[in-house]
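Thread title: Can someone regenerate the structure for this chain?

I was given the following input by a collaborator and told the matching structure tokens would be attached. They weren't. Posting the sequence so someone can regenerate them.
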Amino acid sequence: MKRWSRWLRAPRGLLILLTTVVALPAATLVWLGVWLLQQDRELEHQRRAEILQDASVRAINALDRGISELRFRLADPAWPSTAPAAGSIHVVLTRDAVRIEPPSGVAYWPTTATLHETPTEPFREADAVEFQRHEFVRALDIVTRLARSSDATVRAGALMRKGRLLRKLGRIDESLTTYSELGNIASVAINGLPADLQARKTRCALFADQSRTDDLHREAAAIDADLAAGRWRLDPENFEYVEALLDLWLGPRRPRQDNRRLFAQAADWLYRQWATSANGGLPENGTHALTGATIVWTSTPDGVAALVGEDSYVKREWLAEAQRAAAPAAISLLANADVRPLRPSPTAETTLLTRSAAEIGLPWAVSISLSNQTNRAPFETRRRTLLAGLVAVLVLAAAGSYVIVRTRSREMTLARLQSDFVTAVSHEFRTPLTALLQFNDLLDDSADLSLETRRDYYQAQRRAIERLNRLVESLLDFGRMEAGKRQYAMERLDASLLVRDVCDDFRIELKGRSMALRVVIDSQEHAVHADAEALARAVWNLLDNAAKYSDDGREIDVIVDRAGDAVSIAVRDRGIGIPSDEQGRIFQKFTRGAAAVSRRIRGTGIGLAMAQHIVTAHGGTLKVESVEHHGSTFTIVLPAVAQPVVSSASSLVES
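Best answer:
Regenerated them for you:
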């Protein structure tokens, strides 16, 4: 395979020719196949569009027919006396009255019932005594006499005042009894509310003040039941007021009847449209869709007759018939208010055609969808045949293209890595060489330097030379390792002694960086068969790697341990760490992480690769554990020698 790759890489003209010979016919074949598939798909879409268009016409006709039949029934004078179908109410508007069947079907009414308010004239004396003179007992005597009046309005006003005065006098039970008596009067209004509702509401307020929770819940629940049964004909404002009180008294668990609210909103909309019209009436025939309800009306000699149907009614009376007419397509109705489907579309369908309400003259927009599997069999057969032919012809072209692309990709990757390697090595050489030149200039230009200063300069030059020597030896050793020509002088040695010696030498490299290097060695024997120079180089490379990727002031730990038949040498730093997606590539030659490039950290990209070569040649493994921004731990694991080696190692920690 290597010879074949070299042969492909050698003549660039041959690569271009081979690429042209393979790629052009394959590209042409793919283009023809895609074109044919596109044509077939467009034909299928056209056929489905025709089915949807026909289905939409049939569905719209069915819906229009159902609404027309309903209008015909609404025009019948006997219609208001018929019972409303499930999920609907009847609304009849005339100049004299608003009629809703059933009355309990709505939460509130567009207009309130005509009730006489209690008069104020008979109570002038009692009110003056109560509020101006604060003579509650005398005022109580006055209203008690008025409570015997035969006039219901006077009696209701007197009972209301009597209950209030008894409450002020602290006679709570008598006050509750008085309000109960007032609760029997339903034909009078007090402050806009029916007298019986006003009395029962006041009883609840008394129970709440007295902390009589059970009595409060019982009375409020009875009011809620009568409100749901349509006992009182309240307008929207009074209804919301009573609702708020019941929510306060009965709590959030109070059951809601949203369908009654929905019907009330529809009846209120119809009444307001009719009442605000200049001639006192809506258009002769009409429809309107609200969120969750549809209104259909027609004019009558006396006013307007209308039906309000919620979604269940629409589905049962009209949508079901429209769905049968639209088969095999599926139909959904969308309310104009919020474009909410009245019937959820199945997940296997895709909406392909929508007709707006203005376009079709219905209260809803109509969405027609068709299953992806409908009328698809003949198209699928043709496509499978075409695809099978394309796949059979493209296999050979794909194989050839794969060889070319893979070979070319390897070339480009290798060229990039080699370029990065040359740049890195040049930088590594430049640093010690620059140091040598600087110290030589200092020695030449300063003849009066002291002996101690000259010794420091010579030591600095020596460190630079040793660094150059290590770099050159590393490059030569790595070349021999890659070629398989590196010979190892294996001997039995104490890994702990070797590690301490390497760490002592490496501390010189850390001079001036305020970085602590700690060596931790347990009390067991650490004998291994190894090449001392090679193993020391592997440990040095791990230390150098830890120092480069750690900030000043951080610590590096070297831990020598023995577990069973293995000796481990771990180098742990607290530096920038290695991202998880890079940990699988860091042992490849010339590979450097993104952080090394972005932070301009020196290095050649062969240190870890060399360490792995050495450890593998010694029959061991090199592992890495790293968390980004929290440091890394590289661990060399080598087989231990069975017989103990005489060593001075003991359990210690060096810093």
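Residues 1-10, 337-349, 645-653 have pLDDT under 50 and may be disordered.
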